[in-house]
Amino acid sequence: MRIKSQKDFFAGLLYMAIGIAFAWGATNYTIGNGARMGPGYFPLLLGIVLTIIGAAVAFKAMVVESATGDPVGKFAWKPLIFIIASNFLFGILLGGMPSLGIPAMGMIVAIYVLTIVASMAGKEFRWVPTLVLGTILAIGSWFAFVWGLKLQFQVWPSFIGG
């Protein structure tokens, strides 16, 4: 059988791989049953559903003809690197990394760095919209987590907040 839509075929394989990983990981927990669900019940069902969706998408990609064949384009390394780096930096700045001598910089600084680095993943980077987005995310996060949920974690760097 010939692949008629590469994008859909590989998307289906990705869904199936993630679904199988979730289902397999769920077996490390108590599954339970429908009346008394254990902690592994939902990840198992999620994994099964994702695997079924992936199989359906991959099957459709091999059966239904598309106009251009939807070839897979070149791999987008720049967005991948910047998005992953922004998440790593967020975690490091939020909690610090004492083994490397990096102090915790707090939620506000971590959100701004996350926003700036993730914005560099796009084709064009503009400071004003990025800083506006960072401000909105920082204020919203402060209201949701610190004020609303009363979570106790460092908001500002220790040299600012004390």
Automatic annotation (TrEMBL):
It comes from Ottowia thiooxydans. Keywords: Membrane, Transmembrane, Transmembrane helix. The keyword Transmembrane helix applies. The keyword Signal does not apply. Residues 10-153 form the DUF1468 domain. It comes from the Bacteria. This is DUF1468 domain-containing protein. Coiled coil: none annotated. The chain crosses the membrane at residues 41-63, 75-94, 100-120, 127-149. It holds the Pfam family TctB.
